[in-house]
Design goal:
The protein is an alpha/beta fold. The protein has 2 domains: 64 residues; 204 residues, Vaccinia Virus protein VP39 (Rossmann fold), CATH 3.40.50. Helix content is 42%, strand content 19%. The strands form 2 sheets. It has a 7-stranded mixed sheet with strand order 5-4-3-6-7-9-8, sandwiched between helices. The chain has a two-stranded antiparallel sheet with strand order 1-2. It is elongated, with a radius of gyration of 21 Å. The model has no long low-confidence stretch (mean pLDDT 94).
Length: 300
């Protein structure tokens, strides 16, 4: 069987099984099995596929056809250009969350919360940037923390996770980053009492209403961890806690960036306003024009 025939067969099987994006997922699976790039699939379409690889691919194809998400089948997902290990212990990182990471990286690269000119000038005189601090709550796979750590060298990142199983996987994914510390605990409860405040608190918390979860796709409701999905009756249980508790752990001028549901924008902005602790709270829309990220600035 040639690579072209191999790819066409995967597409055919995926379409029959009702996979939502059969062509794209078939290419991903073929690249994984053949350890090659998408460009290689095109340029070597007439090459023969080794029988051992065909045999190995059958089990993966079968898993996907049964509804297991492709990222779990392959054991990895790409987030902000970083390959992360993923399985049923953690949510699959999604493109919408990359918007949050991008906003955080831009803010931290500019120096984070208000930094004095004297401190900045002194650091630059020594050939360095002032250190900035970020916290990634409900880190899951560690995706947000990894993106920040990889793209802001002068950042010190604390990632927290309550689930012991997700915590172990986050430690694996964040091991390459010396500027990240991974803690297990319930939101800010993982911090020591003397931990200094942060320039940015970042989070993709559980925000799906409990009674909506059974209506989700089988890939989500049957495989992704309930603990990372279920936000309580209105989806805002964890969000309320974070909005209320975050100001105590933010520097003046620091920001809270939090992913929310597409229909929760007005509610989370109102929750931030009710605290009186934020000088600004607004919603950043995703690429589809839907409400997606709360950006709240701590009062000076």
């Amino acid at each position: 069987m040639t690579i072209r025939e191999f790819l066409e067969e995967i597409i055919r099987v995926f379409k029959k099984a009702g996979v939502e994006s059969p062509e794209a997922e078939a290419r991903q699976l073929a690249c994984h099995v053949l350890s090659c790039s998408p460009a290689f699939l095109l340029s070597h379409a007439d090459d023969e596929v080794d029988d051992k690889l065909l045999l190995a691919s059958a089990a993966l194809i079968n898993e996907r056809c049964k509804g297991r998400p492709l990222q779990y089948v392959l054991g990895s997902a790409n987030f902000y250009g970083i390959d992360l290990a993923v399985d049923e212990r953690v949510l699959i990182p999604r493109p919408e969350t990359e918007l949050l990471a991008e906003e955080a990286i831009e803010f931290l690269r500019k120096g984070g919360a208000r930094t004095s000119d004297a401190l900045r000038d002194a650091a630059k005189a020594l050939g360095a940037e002032p250190q900035v601090r970020a916290m990634d709550l409900c880190t899951g796979s560690g995706a947000i923390a990894a993106a920040v750590a990889a793209n802001v060298p002068n950042a010190r990142v604390v990632a927290t996770e309550l689930s012991p199983r997700a915590f172990m996987l986050a430690r694996v994914n964040l091991r390459p980053y010396e500027n990240v510390k991974v803690l297990r605990g319930d939101l800010f409860g993982a911090l020591a009492e003397d931990d200094p405040p942060f320039d940015a608190i970042l989070t993709n918390p559980p925000y799906i209403p409990t009674d909506v979860i059974p209506t989700l796709s089988r890939e989500v409701k049957d495989h992704e961890p309930l603990m990372a999905l279920d936000g309580g009756a209105d989806g805002l249980d964890i969000i309320r806690r974070i909005i209320k508790e975050a100001p105590e752990h933010l520097k003046s001028g620091g920001i809270l960036l939090m992913e929310t549901g597409h229909d929760q924008g007005a509610a989370v902005v109102e929750l931030a306003a009710q605290t009186g602790a934020y000088q600004e709270a607004r919603i950043i829309k995703d690429l589809a024009g839907r409400d997606r990220i709360l950006r709240a600035v701590r009062q000076f």
